Amino acid sequence: MSNCWISYSCILWLSIVFNLHVSATTRFYDFKVQTMRITKMCKSKQIVSINQMFPGPVIYAQEDDQIIVKVTNETPYNTTLHWHGVRQKLSCWYDGPSYITQCPILSGQKFVYKFTLEKQKGTLFWHAHVSWLRGTVYGAIVVYPKMGIPSPFRNPYKEQIILLGEYWHKDVVQLEHEALESGGAPTPADAFTINGHPGPNYKCSSNNGNKNAKKLGKKICALYNVGFVVKLIKS
Ligand SMILES: [Cu+2]
């Protein structure tokens, strides 16, 4: 051990360990699972959200960062959150699927997710993983390359997070129960959404959610709320 202080290889090892230590950051997020009222296409309903946001908060990080998300369930529903696309190396118990890697977070309870975005960069997303709560409980995870490391893709014209989803006027938990009871197919969605907005093509909907997508006109990455990352290219 005393040789360690004079050995070149020992100094190199120490510097690598030191560099790894300083180049990754731990990022903390506080997610409160809450109900809120929203109005879409002139009809109001209560949805489950995170921090009263629909879509939910964006997690921003850099490759190799550790993410810690404290989830407090303030709704009457059981829930979990799944980190879609995160590889979960040596942390599969924080992956999120209910009854598979964890028990649901019960009403009034807390759970802390802890995972590392090891060797991952790009745009991923998170969503609820209990029943149809994922219909309104979702958001993006943006993972930038480390400082000084170029992006593996061509530099985009503009960065814009686009989350595609479906929207039902009815309560989604009730819809799921009805589908299970009947054994039939679930009711089709009342609207497709971009970043939670149905856009102007639907009756009584004038919000500008789709305008952003129209304006882009360049290669962009989009996230679909069941798990595909696609590229949209102007035709
Ligand atoms: Cu998923």
UniProtKB/TrEMBL annotation:
CDD domains: CuRO_1_LCC_plant. Keywords: Membrane, Transmembrane, Transmembrane helix. Gene3D superfamilies: Cupredoxins - blue copper proteins. The chain crosses the membrane at residues 6-29. The keyword Lipid metabolism does not apply. Residues 33-146, 159-206 form the Plastocyanin-like domain. Belongs to the multicopper oxidase family. This is Plastocyanin-like domain-containing protein. Pfam families: Cu-oxidase, Cu-oxidase_3. One of its GO terms (molecular function) is oxidoreductase activity. InterPro entries: Cu-oxidase-like_N, Cu-oxidase_2nd, Cu-oxidase_fam, Cupredoxin, CuRO_1_LCC.
